[in-house]
Design brief:
With 601 residues, this protein is an alpha/beta fold. 39% of the residues lie in helices and 10% in strands. The chain has 21 helices and 13 strands. The strands form two sheets. Strands 3-4-2-5-6-1-7 form a seven-stranded parallel sheet, covered by helices on one side. The protein has a six-stranded parallel sheet with strand order 8-13-12-9-11-10, sandwiched between helices. Helix 1 packs across helix 3 and helix 14 packs across helix 15. It is globular.
């Protein structure tokens, strides 16, 4: 155990003392000085004590992974730390950050293990041979054969010669109480490692959001933290530079248009600087792709690299692609990322100006986590959260069936998640910030950039842009697009497009039609390519959602920005009708008796 004295007999700071961490360790990690609470927790970890830190994003809690490892190396002690992070991209981020600070760090997951193996390397053997200071892995890998074998060798009394763990670091440990996805289920099993490891290894658990009391106690108990035997530091969860703006949907989000968020791309924008760096959270991958596609249609058609300005981001993308997207986002060439909750745990970007959340988050913690992506550089930022109108508490009741159904929904929400209901039905007297403060046990402090109730003009510019887009898009829709077809042979519905066979076939057919039709449509504009006639992104949208094109009006609604609809919409509709007729026959033959999922449509 380290001495409590500040200086050794030689006059130098005593290893493990607060002065030593400030004078010796802070410069090695690139800090001018450590924060007081970082020093307190660092001393505890150096003395092999468990540590818990609850602090908002951007506060410096991630440094708790690097400080004890660098301290051990500086004190000429051998060191090996294991960090558990929720996503592969976050594992890579942690490894890169640790490497930048002089630690030998590696991310371990199925892809990195395979890539190393292809080059003749065995990463787990390298860890066993004490070649690394730190390895970071996702929780599902904790129960893999490779890690199980490594943990077996860590058992006290094991005679196997292998590197010994000195630190366990659990990032985003609030996920222990959020079950549903595989990695969250894996989080709930992390505590099982306690009985298999030396009890003297310090555990460090960090998170941005957990309310004081039973919920925090339950999470820590699951991880094996014994009450009274760990050092805790809790900071305010509320981030004062983020403005809270709860909203109810004014426009439908069931189709291909999302007018409520059209303000992200200002009307008439001619510079990337006019588009704020924004993250948009969606409940599903399908919704995220649709939102990204809609926003792309609002971009000027002649912009160079317009396809890179708004990008989707979700778990099914390869780690390599996600890395490319995040890098472009950090540099500012990509301005808007649209994705699922993967964005909460999968990136570290400090200058996000706007966070938009579409749909009701499942817990207050998830809402706080997503909101917390904004303004990590301390600059003013906004969090705009859209939920269905049924979340709104109404004063009067007319007894209608829909109203009764909405009442039941709100009553259930009030019973299960009252904080969420209050957050969206807040008032100047009990605003969204005060709801959060009450939930997390923080003292409410009114700030100048508080919320839409204390700053009612906060959303005016967004409302103005939405109005401009509605006017502009309605003006661009040709009259023919709003005229019902008189074709008696039109079917009321079609089966959805098969992505593996039908979609590629439809793409070929539509592309051939475009190339065949454009020469007669271009007139004297012989230098413009056929993609200007029906752009690629409109072709993709048409082919992926062709099943909704049951008449000319539906085609016009699906492609409202297609400027050639008036002259060529009828011909394109005939092509779609022929394609869908064939596809329907195929469905009948090969899918007879199978019910198509309405939600998928």
């Amino acid at each position: 155990m380290a001495s409590n004295q500040e200086q050794s007999p030689t006059g130098k700071p005593q290893p493990g003392s607060p002065l030593w961490f400030q004078d010796v360790i802070a410069p090695k990690l690139g800090y001018t000085a450590l924060k007081d609470w970082q020093v307190t927790l660092a001393c505890a970890m150096f003395n092999k004590e468990d540590v818990v830190c609850i602090a908002p994003t951007g506060s410096g809690k991630s440094a708790l992974l690097h400080i004890p490892l660098m301290a051990a190396k500086t004190a000429n002690q051998r060191v090996l730390g294991m960090s558990v992070a929720p996503t592969k991209s976050l594992c890579d981020d942690q490894a890169r950050a640790a490497t930048d600070r002089g630690l030998k760090a590696i991310a371990i997951y199925s892809d990195s293990l395979r890539a190393a193996s292809a080059k003749g390397r065995d990463l787990m053997q390298e860890i066993n041979d004490d070649q690394w200071d730190l390895f970071i892995l996702p929780p599902e890998l904790l129960h893999s054969d490779e890690i199980n074998k490594f943990i077996q060798h860590q058992t006290p009394g094991s005679s196997t010669k292998t590197a010994r763990l000195d630190l366990i670091f659990i990032d985003e440990c609030h996920l222990v109480r959020e079950h549903g996805d595989d990695f969250r289920k894996a989080y709930s099993r992390i505590g099982q490692l306690r009985g298999r490891l030396d009890f003297r290894i310090p555990w460090v658990a960090v998170m941005a959001t957990l309310p004081d009391g039973k919920i925090t106690d339950a999470v820590l108990d699951s991880l094996g933290f014994e009450k009274g035997h760990y050092v805790m530091h809790r900071m305010r969860v509320d981030v004062p530079n983020i403005q809270y703006i709860p909203r109810f949907f004014n426009h439908s989000i069931s189709g291909s248009t999302f007018f409520d968020i059209s303000w992200v791309i200002p009307v008439g924008t001619h510079s990337l600087d006019h588009i704020k760096k924004t993250v948009i959270f969606c409940e599903t991958i399908k919704l995220a792709c649709s939102v990204a596609e809609f926003l792309e249609t609002l971009m000027p058609a002649d912009w160079e690299d317009r396809g890179k300005i708004i990008m989707p981001f979700y778990s099914l993308l390869s780690n390599e692609y996600r890395g490319v997207y995040i890098d472009a986002y950090r540099k500012g060439t990509t301005r808007v990322l649209v994705g699922t909750d993967t964005l909460t745990c999968g990136m570290d970007v400090v200058d996000i100006e706007d966070v938009i959340i579409i749909g009701l988050p499942p817990t207050p913690e998830r809402l706080s986590q997503q909101i917390g992506r904004a303004g990590r550089n301390g600059q003013p930022a906004r969090a705009v959260v859209y939920v269905p109108r049924r979340v709104r508490i109404r004063d009067g009741r007319n007894g209608a069936k829909k109203e009764t159904k909405d009442d039941a929904y709100r009553n259930k929400l009030k019973q299960d998640k009252p904080e969420l209901l209050h957050w969206f039905n807040a008032s100047p007297e009990f605003c969204p910030r005060s709801v959060f403060c009450g939930y997390y046990g923080d003292e409410f402090r009114l700030v100048s950039n508080c919320c839409i109730h204390h700053c009612p003009d906060a959303y005016d510019s967004c409302t103005e842009e939405i109005g401009k887009w509605l006017k502009a898009l309605q003006k661009d829709v040709p009259p023919a697009a709003t005229t019902e077809t008189t074709d008696k042979e039109d079917k009321p519905t079609h089966h959805i497009i098969d992505k593996t066979v039908m979609y590629p076939a439809a793409r070929r057919i539509i592309r051939q039609w475009v190339e065949k039709t454009w020469p007669t449509a271009q007139g004297e504009d012989t230098l413009t390519p056929a993609t200007a006639f029906l752009p690629e992104h409109l072709q993709e949208r048409l082919c992926s959602q062709m099943h909704v094109v049951t008449n000319a009006k539906k085609l016009g609604e699906l492609l409202p920005e297609w400027h050639y609809f008036k002259e060529h919409g009828k011909a394109l509709f005939k092509v779609c009708k022929q394609v869908l007729r064939v596809f329907d026959d195929i469905w009948k033959e090969r899918e007879r008796g199978i019910t198509i999922d309405e939600e998928a449509e």
